[in-house]
Amino acid sequence: MNRPMWVMNLKKYADTNAVRASLQLLNTLIPYFLTISAMVLVLHFSLPVLLLIPLTLLGAGFHIRIFIIFHDCAHGSFFHAKKTNRIVGIITGILTLTAFEEWRKSHLTHHGTVGNIDKKGVGDIWTLTAQEYLASTKLTRGLYRLYRNPFFLFLIAPFFLFVIMNRFPGRHRSLQENLNTLLTDASLACIILAVSLTLGIEYYLIIQLPIVFVSSSCGLWLFYVQHQFQNVYWSRNKDWDLVKAATEGSSYYRLPAVLRWFTGNIGYHHIHHLNPKIPNYRLRECQNAQPELKSIPSLGLLQSLMSLNLRLYDESTGKMIGFSGLRSLHAHH
Known about the structure:
Distance between the termini: 36 Å
Order of helices and strands: HHHHHEHHHHHHEHHHHEHEEH
Largest sheet: 3 strands, mixed
Number of helices: 17
Number of strands: 5
Number of domains: 1
């Protein structure tokens, strides 16, 4: 596949930096555990329970940042050494309730199929074309409408996925993937047991579950908006183009500086798909230095909320549409 020279030039930003990576680990993990410690003190000394709300939000922010480190390790882009990425990936995977090996495999599949209508379905959000939806059974349509309902998609599904679904090995996974899933589960069981024997199980439930609920919901929103916007690129396999899938099928999400920090620059998702070997701590530098990236349309916070109404991809117009758009599609045909 031929790639423009400027895309090839992005390789110079794929150099990892052990100092920057280590500092990011420290400025993420230390305040995360300090936040949890503060929540423990609130409960232990029976301080006003309302104090838990800002601490939960802060803890969720650090939890998302831990997941970004986990994500970079899965791409082998956080540290230089493969072994170091794997060790840090497994540890951060335990903290984010996600088995490293299985998630890594499905996520790399997502990178190789993003925007490809004929290969969708692995490591992504269930998306039907309008034509596929109209050809589906009533049961499939009903399930799809339930799945794409924002209440289910952002409040129920993420928590269910991280807390329950991530706990099970899979029949079609490799031995290494299943062993890593069991290792993650055993580690979580040890953490829960240790907290139960020292502080009490209620401490874990009151502190950890709300953090996971907020962080998983926000995390799924970030993943959703990265590939679900009106003019997103989708193509059939024969015409699929990696550069277009990255620059037109992955959003450049403009976030305020504080959110950009907590989300590990994931808003520069178009660059990440152009070259997933670029570590998160070099994405902004790449965006500012590469002229061709400045012309790529961006998505602001308010603008991104419009994507909540998008449910289907209409191949005839090349746009995402809502269920209401099916009426005009019927009328057109």
